[in-house]
Write a structure and sequence with these properties.
The protein folds into 2 domains: about 1-85, Orthogonal Bundle (Arc Repressor Mutant, subunit A), CATH 1.10.10; about 90-300, Jelly Rolls, CATH 2.60.120.260. The protein is elongated, with a radius of gyration of 32 Å. The protein is built from 4 helices and 19 strands. The chain is about 15% helix and about 35% strand. The mean pLDDT is about 95. The longest helix is centred in the N-terminal third of the chain and has 13 residues, at about 45-60. Strand 12 (about 190-195) and strand 13 form a beta hairpin. Strands 5, 7, 8, 9, 11, 14, 15, 16, 18 and 19 form a 10-stranded antiparallel sheet that branches. Strands 6-10-17-12-13 form a 5-stranded antiparallel sheet, with no helix packed on it. A two-stranded parallel sheet has the order 1-4. The protein is mostly beta strands. About 30% of the residues are buried. One of its GO terms (molecular function) is DNA binding.
Length: about 300
């Protein structure tokens, strides 16, 4: 039985507000017993038993049916549970939208510097080390891209309903630093912005070529970057984290995402302590160790009752 806090369900609350009636429910839930037998069992007058059974029946908690002899009516439980729906939902249902963003489907780049370049799963997009290659029409087929300095920005639509509220954002991206050829111990510092708000930074430990990436095509030279590390970025109620380690106190509520119809993720190479730039390499579904592009997931709730 589904009930709420309206007066319509007052008989249910009243029926349950009695130790005697609760005991009656327990007895008739486990055995078939007549009102007369129930009165003897509970040492209560038959009139009192009849009154309390009527209250339970009026609340639709019990019903009467013919006994085995088809003469006497036997009370039996009519429900197996009662759920109470309160006016305000404390823990709202979450919904989600997922987006697969090819790494070449960026909307903005800025101050890209060499070494830099892009490649599809079959060839390098030329010329290398020229930032103008990032404007090539072939960039949409890119499966790996890299640059030593600069920033890159991706956009996804904010498609949640008008009565929706974004509760959590997640991005999964395979990343490495950038070094000419490759260097497993080459560190880089990467900053992240969500809708132009800085949400934190992380350090990438290397640009890896010790083994071939699981999905890196055979034609790609072994001495070049082979794979990265999968970074799980989460912007939640309390903070922003990468792989469950907090990188800032920026929470989802700080971003006022209900005011915009798009979500932008910007990544930029930040200077290290010695003013060097360690670069950034992004891997698509056909390069590296993880068969995915940039994966974005939006978790949201819906204000179905029009309540704040």
């Amino acid at each position: 039985m589904d009930i709420d806090t309206s007066i319509n369900y007052l008989p249910v609350y009243q029926a349950l507000d009695s130790p005697v009636r609760l005991e009656m429910i327990d007895i008739i839930s486990h055995e078939k017993i007549t009102a007369t037998q129930l009165a003897k069992r509970m040492n209560i007058s038959k009139a009192a038993i009849s009154k309390n059974l009527h209250i339970l029946e009026n609340a639709n908690i019990i019903k009467f049916q013919k006994g085995t002899d088809n003469r006497q009516n036997v009370p039996c439980v009519n429900i197996d549970k009662i759920s109470i729906n309160f006016p305000q939902q404390i823990f709202p249902d979450y919904y989600k939208k997922s987006y697969d963003i090819p790494i070449g489907n960026y909307f903005a780049i800025e101050d890209i510097g060499p070494s830099c370049g892009l490649a599809t799963n079959t060839e390098v997009i030329t010329p290398m080390d020229d930032m103008n290659v990032f404007f090539s029409t072939h960039r949409f087929q890119a499966q790996i891209l890299w640059f030593t300095q600069g920033s890159i920005e991706y956009i996804i639509p904010n498609e949640i309903p008008e009565n929706g509220k974004i509760e959590l954002l997640e991005f999964d991206i395979e990343l490495a630093s950038e070094f000419p050829m490759s260097n497993n111990s080459w560190h880089s510092k990467i900053g992240f912005w969500l809708n132009d708000t800085f949400i934190g930074a992380t350090e990438l430990p290397g640009n890896y070529s010790d083994v071939r990436g699981r999905y890196t095509p055979d034609w790609w030279p072994k001495k070049f970057s082979q794979y990265g590390l999968l970074n799980h970025i989460r912007i939640g109620e309390l903070d922003t984290s990468i792989d469950s380690v907090s990188i800032s106190n920026v929470s989802i509520n700080d971003l006022a995402l209900h005011k915009t119809r798009r979500l932008t993720l910007k990544m930029a190479v930040l200077p290290m302590d010695n003013d060097t730039y360690g670069g950034l390499t992004l891997f698509g579904s056909d390069f590296g160790n993880h068969p995915q592009n940039i994966k974005a997931t939006v978790f949201y709730s819906q204000n179905d009752h029009g309540l704040d």
